[in-house]
């Protein structure tokens, strides 16, 4: 059973929810704000040839930091770990605000990514220790909703400051908000359960290197098919990179399955017949297919004849469906049904998008995007809560931390993989934008079917 939404805002809990949501919102806003102000920043500090690396050098540290969330909680208290994450994020943001050159901006982005990845990883880990179990699903939905809010606030914040010729002001604003969240941490996380003393474990170096390597290869793959006029060589590099990254992730599974291995994933992930492995795969599929969002404005302008502003709002349709889906789903005590049905709703949305691209029927595009987003949002909070519950059942705080932190790590890797696959699909269409759109939506619809299959096992954890 899950408690009502009012229980989330009860005295002693609203501070916890506010702090955890605030940290994720900072990370989400920063993910989107930079894209809207970067053109203005380049005019002042130069470095246009490193444009794409601004995202790459943000994502890689975020993936690695999220993978080490359990390690951070083993070394520090919940409040200290969260303040360290906020400190790293704030420092990186301040470096960005003061950057005199692109090289310095890239350093700031890397520091930001490390802090943001740790904030996102801690959010799920601390839900488990700071809130009662009956609130885990709703808390997961609230935290995930911050990504939808970030998609709305980020571009607007960056656009306003860039339009005023004050792009640094967006970063300075975020430094201030980071400080506000930090002030609330001592009170907000005072209910986080104290951790019992645990024996020191080996650092999972091999696993961290494999995760970081996969993220790095996927980032480079994305760069190979970014921009216009993608060459055959770029497509080959991108496709090869995806294969290599998947190989590294398979190697990660092999390494983590070894008895006595220093791991970043909980042991229950590899239990034969257990649902946790399927939970992570289903979550990865649903997050990965949401990468289509980046290309919606392009298709809206070139195929639908929309203005840039209207096309941008069309791109928000998937995020809106996601938020509505998760908030509605988290309110119902139907976790297993939501996990089973959600991926199929996404499949239906992508099917509708695929068959309507050549018609210019923008209304149907919006319906398809909303439906796909609803499918993702419907399943997500139950998958996240199921992962946390599976880790808690092990009776080991370290295992619980790994299970919770892995949610963010899987999310970050899925974003990188989805972006690379989307870039390849669009590039394969060449100069025919309609074909590119059909390849993207149709291909991701097929990927969503994989999520529907793995959800049959994952629903046991909901």
UniProtKB/TrEMBL annotation:
PANTHER family, sorted: MAJOR FACILITATOR SUPERFAMILY, MULTIDRUG-EFFLUX TRANSPORTER RV1634-RELATED
Name of the featured protein: MFS transporter
InterPro entries hit by this protein: MFS, MFS_dom, MFS_trans_sf, Tet-R_TetA/multi-R_MdtG-like
Chain ranges of the Major facilitator superfamily (MFS) profile domain: 16-462
PROSITE patterns: MFS
Residue ranges the record marks as coiled coil: none
Pfam families, per the entry: MFS_1 (PF07690)
Keywords, in A-Z order: Membrane, Transmembrane, Transmembrane helix
Source organism per UniProt: Actinomycetospora atypica
UniProt key word Transmembrane: yes
């Amino acid at each position: 059973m899950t408690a009502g939404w009012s229980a989330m805002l009860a005295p002693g809990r609203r501070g916890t929810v506010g702090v955890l949501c605030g940290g994720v919102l900072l990370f989400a806003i920063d993910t989107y704000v930079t894209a809207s102000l970067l053109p203005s920043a380049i005019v002042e500090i130069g470095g246009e040839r490193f444009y794409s690396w601004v995202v790459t050098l943000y994502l890689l540290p975020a993936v690695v930091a999220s993978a080490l969330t359990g390690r951070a909680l083993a070394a520090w208290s919940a409040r200290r770990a969260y303040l360290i994450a906020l400190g790293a994020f704030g420092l990186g943001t301040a470096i960005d605000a003061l950057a005199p050159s692109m090289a310095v901006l890239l350093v700031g982005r890397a520091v930001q990514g490390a802090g943001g990845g740790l904030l996102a990883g801690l959010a799920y880990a601390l839900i488990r220790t700071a809130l009662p179990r009956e609130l885990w699903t709703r808390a997961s939905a609230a935290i995930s909703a911050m990504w939808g809010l970030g998609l709305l606030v980020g571009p607007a914040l960056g656009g306003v400051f860039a339009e005023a010729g004050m792009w640094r002001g967006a970063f300075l604003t975020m430094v201030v908000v980071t400080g506000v969240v930090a002030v609330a941490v001592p009170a907000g996380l005072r209910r986080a359960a104290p951790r019992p003393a645990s024996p020191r474990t080996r650092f999972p170096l091999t696993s961290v290197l494999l995760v970081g390597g996969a993220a790095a290869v996927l980032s480079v793959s994305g760069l190979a098919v970014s921009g216009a006029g993608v060459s055959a060589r770029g497509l080959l590099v991108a496709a090869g990179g995806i294969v290599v990254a998947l190989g590294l992730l398979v190697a990660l599974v092999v390494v983590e399955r070894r008895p006595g291995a220093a791991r970043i994933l909980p042991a229950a992930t590899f239990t034969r017949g257990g649902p946790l492995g399927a939970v992570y795969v289903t979550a990865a599929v649903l997050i990965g297919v949401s990468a289509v969002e980046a290309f919606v404005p392009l298709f809206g302008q070139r195929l639908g004849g929309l203005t840039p502003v209207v096309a941008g709002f069309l791109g928000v349709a998937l995020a809106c469906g996601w938020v509505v889906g998760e908030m509605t789903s988290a309110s119902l005590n139907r976790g297993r049904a939501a996990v089973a049905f959600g991926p199929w709703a996404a499949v239906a949305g992508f099917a509708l998008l695929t068959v309507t691209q050549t018609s210019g029927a923008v209304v149907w595009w919006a319906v398809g995007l909303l439906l796909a987003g609803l499918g993702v949002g419907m399943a997500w909070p139950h998958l996240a809560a199921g992962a946390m519950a599976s880790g808690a059942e092990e009776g080991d705080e370290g295992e619980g931390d790994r299970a919770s932190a892995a949610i963010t790590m899987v999310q970050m890797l899925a974003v990188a993989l989805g972006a690379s696959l989307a870039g390849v699909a669009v590039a394969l269409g060449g100069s025919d934008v309609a074909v590119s759109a059909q390849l993207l939506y149709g291909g991701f619809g097929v990927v969503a079917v994989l999520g529907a299959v793995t959800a049959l096992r994952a629903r046991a954890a909901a």
